Amino acid sequence: MPSLKNLTVPFKPTFRNFQPLWIYFVKNRWALVAGVLSLLVVDFLQLMIPLIIKKAINILVVQTSGVGALLVKQGVTIGMIALLIALFRYVWRRLLLGHSRKVEQGLRDRLYGHIQTLSRSFFQNTKTGDLMSRAINDINAVRMACGMGLVALVDGFILGTAAIGFMMSIDWRLTLISLIPAPVVVVVTRMVTQQMSARFERVQKSFSDLTEQARESFSGIRVIKAHQREGWEYGRMKARGEQYVGESMHLARTLALFFPLMTLITNAGLAVVILLGGRYTILGTITPGDFVAFIAYLNLLTWPVMAMGWVVSLIQRGSASMRRINGILEAVPEIQDPGGENGRGPQGKRAEGVSEKAEGSIAFSGLNFRYPGQKEYVLKDVNLKIRAGETIAIVGRVGSGKTTLLQIVPRLLNPPESMVFVDGRDIRNLSLNTLRKKIGFVSQDVFIFSDTVYNNVAFGTDDVTDEEVRQALSVAGIREEMEALDKGLGTLLGERGITLSGGQRQRLTIARAVVGDFPILILDDALSMVDTRTEAGILNRILDLRQDRTNVIVSHRVSTIRRADRIFVFDHGSLKEEGTHESLILLRGIYAALYEEQILSESLENGGVISS
Questions:
Q1: Do 493 and 456 touch, CB atoms closer than 8 A?
Q2: Which end of the chain has fewer CB atoms at under 10 Å, N or C?
Q3: At what angle do helices 466-475 and 532-545 cross, to 10 degrees?
């Protein structure tokens, strides 16, 4: 268990964490002003009620005739004040709590938009459950701090200060006596707030771990069931839940101590006031109406004292959550558009925009690449040129660097400067939008959205027609299968396309890439889940459709490789061989060995008999 000393957090940084929200306060300033004014009107009206009660009681004590009419008048006045309080309370709740919802929306949009810009390494190092927790639980805590936290802070300060002023006007000695517990409240509040922020952050971190564990368990439920590991997975989830409950109970104990202490201290002051105020009334120092009004103001003062604890709780929780959100907002993408706001790239070069004509040539010039934190280079001195409109194949054993090479082209990985060129231009000097609009990329990791077949193919492209979507499905060899579904292309697919087979998912992603008619199409082992004959048919249709476009194909099948204009052979990150299928077979090198292995594999796949 960490010591309380290690859990303390300075108070000033608590509010510093909220600085990114200032833009939303400025944007909603008029609604905030109107809401705060309505809140002040409510406080003023509440402060008037004890004065009316004071007057009514003094009437009862002093006057002997006409009392009934006067009391009715006071009662009607209180009723009218109650109606006004209800009206203005509705206004401030609508405006101030509505402001907190706008802050929530703005912060969520900003967070999601920023996450979309972050590089692949960020997602490799950050759990999905942690992102979900920050986007839901943490933003909700920030909303509460900007809504009810703001209300309690303003209301508590104004109402408390005004109540003390009215109490002083009745009797300053009694007021000072009633405020004797105030220093104790300050000390207790400071002691508790020094622990709250860190404890809240530990709770949020534990909740992130719990969310990630649940996400992983549900995503892998089919594997869990296949291996009959339900009990083991239940144990893991239970342990995470117990950890979260444990952290929450530590926090609950702190809060459970705080609020009763506040109640005890304020009621102690009330007891003293009743004892001494009663004597002052008997002695005639103050009137009975003054005494009742004083107690009413003291009761009003109880809310600001309690609000202090609530404000501390909301603000500390919001600050801890905002600190976690700021950790994401402050993350800088490793891969960025060159030049930033002025549009200039490295060495003052201006980033080239979307107006440039795309042709489809690719060149690698002495490319060396290694992943961050690794000593070994994945790619070593790669020199390779692909002409526009050419179909090439890249082959090599597992781990030879093929996928890394292809992911560098659209800058999913960031290469060194002046080593990778598209259409003769360094990709480091091209905007990401320009570069990626030129490239259709189908990776080994097939992903289908929980959406309709049509939307999975169109994929947010506004200018795609129905006919183009159907043509793309035909090219991918899956049109008839998709149209045969219950609702045709409007059929909603399950999470990650679980209602489809592996081969269907792959072909659907092929259709997604083909419908865009990109100048460059990269297929990274994109048909590994279909049989050889189906792959050959799909590839033939793709190449017939894209005769004047650049096509880069990674495949382990001979039937796919042979159709390429040129073949590049990689081994341990280096380009070892280059040529046509026939020339590489005659070379009797790495490609020839791979070719013989593939002939054997395809023969077995097609039911052939291999003699010993």
A1: yes
A2: C
A3: 140
Tell which phi-psi region holds residue 368, choosing left (phi > 0), alpha (psi between -120 and 50) or beta.
Answer: beta
List the one residue out of 378, 422, 377, 430 whose CA is nearest residue 400. 378
Q: Which two tokens stand for residue 94?
A: 């609508």
Q: Nearest CA to 295 among 275, 270, 272?
A: 270
The Cα 322–Cα 510 span in angstroms is: 41
Residues 306/263, Cβ–Cβ less than 8 Å:
yes
DSSP string computed for 481-503: HHHTSTTGGGPBP-GGGTTS-HH
d(CA 392, CA 567): 6
Q: Residues 381-397: pLDDT tens digits?
A: 999 999 998 999 998 88
**Domains with residue ranges and CATH for the chain:** 29-329 (1.20.1560.10), 356-605 (3.40.50.300)
Residue pLDDT, tens place only, 442-476: 887 778 887 888 888 887 677 788 888 888 888 88
How far apart CA 320 and CA 14 sit, in angstroms, is 8
Those residues with Cβ within 8 angstroms of residue 597's Cβ, 6 or more apart along the chain or in another chain: none
| 107 pLDDT more than 80 | yes
pLDDT of 266 reads 67
At 331-371, the pLDDT tens digits run 888 888 776 543 444 444 444 544 444 478 999 999 999 88
Q: 431 with 352: CB under 8 angstroms?
A: yes
| DSSP characters over 338-406 | TTGGGTB-GGGPBPB-TTSPP---EEEEEEEE--TT-SS-SEEEEEEEE-TT-EEEEEE-TTSSHHHHH
Q: Is 612 helix (H, G, I), strand (E, B) or coil?
A: coil
8 A C-beta contact, residue 392 and residue 522:
no
Three state DSSP letters for 281-344: HHHCCCCHHHHHHHHHHHHHHHHHHHHHHHHHHHHHHHHHHHHHHHHHHCCCCCCCCCCHHHCE
The pLDDT of residue 9 is above 50: no
Phi then psi dihedrals of residue 178, to 5 deg = -70, -20
What is the rounded (10 degree) CA torsion for 30, 34, 35, 41?
160
Which SS3 state, helix, strand or coil, does residue 476 take? coil
- d(C-alpha 203, C-alpha 205), whole Å: 5
CB distance 409 to 439 below 8 Å: yes
Distance in angstroms (rounded) separating the CA atoms of residues 525 and 401: 13
DSSP string, 114-174: HHHHS-HHHHHHS-HHHHHHIIIIIHHHHHHIIIIIHHHHHHHHHHHHHHHHHHHHH-HHH
What does the alpha-carbon distance between residue 474 and residue 467 come to, in Å, rounded to a whole number? 10
Q: What is the pLDDT of residue 8?
A: 41
Question: How many Å apart are CA 77 and CA 74, to the nearest integer?
Answer: 5
**Counting beta carbons within 10 angstroms of the beta carbon of residue 449, is it exposed (0 to 12), middle (13 to 18) or buried (19 or more)?**
middle
Whole-angstrom distance, CA of residue 460 vs CA of residue 471: 17
439 pairs with which residues across the strands? 520
Cα 66 from chain centroid?
68
CA torsion, ordered 488, 492, 493, 494, to nearest 10 deg: -150
Share of the chain above pLDDT 90, in %: 11
Identify the pLDDT of residue 346. 42
pLDDT at 603 over 70: no
